Structures are given as C-alpha cells and as structure tokens.
Amino acid sequence: xxxxxxxxxxxxxxxxxxxxxxxxxxxxxxxxxxxxxxxxxxxxxxxxxxxxxxxxxxxxxxxxxxxxxxxxxxxxxxxxxxxxxxxxxxxxxxxxxxxxxxxxxxxxxxxxxxxxxxxxxxxxxxxxxxxxxxxxxxxxxxxxxxxxxxxxxxxxxxxxxxxxxxxxxxxxxxxxxxxxxxxxxxxxxxxxxxxxxxxxxxxxxxxxxxxxxxxxxxxxxxxxxxxxxxxxxxxxxx
Length: 238
Description:
The protein is α+β, with helices and mostly antiparallel strands and 238 residues long. It has helices at residues 78-82, 85-101, 109-121, 128-142, 189-193, 200-221, 229-237; strands at residues 2-15, 19-26, 30-36, 53-59, 68-75, 161-164, 171-173, 185-186. The strands form two sheets. It has a five-stranded antiparallel β-sheet. The chain has a three-stranded antiparallel β-sheet with strand order 7-6-8. α2 runs antiparallel to α7 (229-237).
C-alpha cells in the first residue's frame, strides 16, 4: 500500500532511538499517522514543526498498519507562528482539536481548506483570531454538531439574530430572546455571516459560543470531560 499527498503537520512524538511518529491532516486522506525514520534527529527538527506544510509519501505492507512516511517540506510556518504567543497557542488548539475530533484516515475536504486558510493567517493576518472562531464553528459542523443561524428558533424571523440558544444551538432574535437574554449565548454578526472581523470583543463572544458547544456537545461525544488545555491557553493569550 502506498500513496502521495500533502498536508499540515499536527503533532510529532519521538519513537525509539531516532524516529518519530507524526500526524498529518492531509488533503485526500484526512488525519493520518505514520512513522518517519530519522524524524527524531536534529536535521529533521526544523522540518517537523506543527503547522508545517509537507509533501508526504506513505507506505505500508497492509492498509491497517501504521506505515512509514517520507516527507518533504513545502512551507514552513515556524517563524510566523513562534513569533506570536497567540498564534502559537492557536496552533496548539487546532492540533489538539483535530487529533481528538477527526476520525483517522477519513477525508474532510472543506475543513482541510479552512484549516490551511487559518494556519496561513496565524501571526500574519490581523483578523486571524476571527478566522479561528469561524474554524471552530466549521469543526463543530464537520463533526455533526452544526449550529443553525438561519432563523430565530422562537419566532422564525431572520432579522436581528443576536443570540444562540445554549440548548439547541439555534439562533434567537433580539425580540425572541429578550426575556431570557441572561441565559443566551452571543451571536456576533461575523460568525453568522462567516466573514472575519478585527473586532476582538466580537471574537471573544464568538469563542464563548463555540466553546460552549465544544464543551457540552463535542467533548462528551469523544468521551472527554473538558476541552483540551491548549484551547484554554489560547483564550488566555487572546
């Protein structure tokens, strides 16, 4: 068995004397692990950094085996990520959520496109925190926990949708939610319109909303009691 693909490196862990096991979110083969012989060496350390874009060739005797990777660098994002404490925390959160949430070896084409857009923006684009919030919303949808911002869950109107029901994940209008405003989650316009913003207050509100559903819907489905610590570090950094 063998194939070629490219993807973003999510994690690296040493294996044996000088090898490493890496997980790559690939374009056509989803999240896929493999052994890199010599991957634990100093020579490979600058290449095998989370966030790096890699060309990979995977080989194994049988499809179910771990298999071995041959890797070639396409794009290093180390400088842009390491230079920004928030970007570094975001990369950690992206890696943790993908490694936890994505079934191994299952392609997720749309989420892959969003992930590449996000990691390219980390530390570079001023609106990357908003892109991260939009990415979390896309992750929830990809995992089967999509939020519905199309109309008010209480009245059916499509105007002034400013809340999200913490129970149903559906949008609620200002009028429809006024009696329960203290119990509602915020719905920033950029999250509903899928359009990044530089407004940090709106980003914080969006992360509060996506975080609620990651914590109460996604994590229990994955058999976990709480979100990864790396996400908490991101919130603190922001």
